[in-house]
Design goal:
CATH topology: Peptide Deformylase
Number of domains: 1
Order of helices and strands: HEEEEEEEHHE
Strand content: 25-35%
Number of helices: 3
Largest sheet: 5 strands, antiparallel
Number of strands: 8
CATH superfamily: Peptide deformylase
Shape: globular
CATH architecture: Alpha-Beta Complex
Helix content: 25-40%
Distance between the termini: 37 Å
Amino acid sequence: MSYSIRTFGDPVLKTQAAEITDIDGKLVRLVDEMFTTMYETESGIGLAAPQIGVQKQIFVWDIDEAPRVIINPVIAESSGEWVYEEGCLSIPGLAVELVRPKQVLLEGVDLDGNRVQYEADELEARLFQHELDHLNGVLMFDRMEADQRREAVAAYRRMSESPERAPRRLRLS
């Protein structure tokens, strides 16, 4: 089974997700369905539960055919700065240059209930920060400067209203 990806304007995307207290078969099924949904998009490398309407602190990712999941994640450390063009499955068709920390240390729990840590740099670090934002009700629009945000929201709305005339991927910097 796969889910529909919730898109900008859906209130679930602006809500803080709940901490997970029980790891059970239902959660394992959710993770499988999240991977199915993410792979069906063909462009996603990460997916947070709120993006499919599930208000739980969990996200999945797959970079270089290494699928992983983390429960109740937190960024314990971050350093550096990296500008990169970022997109989002919940804001389809829009890519924006954003500044985020270059390295992070992500901590959380795996599906076996074990504490895990992931040191990440550049793309994977950005992915962790982006998905963690979803768990906290933050969209990439919220990370933009005011002028960039106004331009991006207006461009996204134009694309949404006339998808047949929209470019395949709108890039703003």
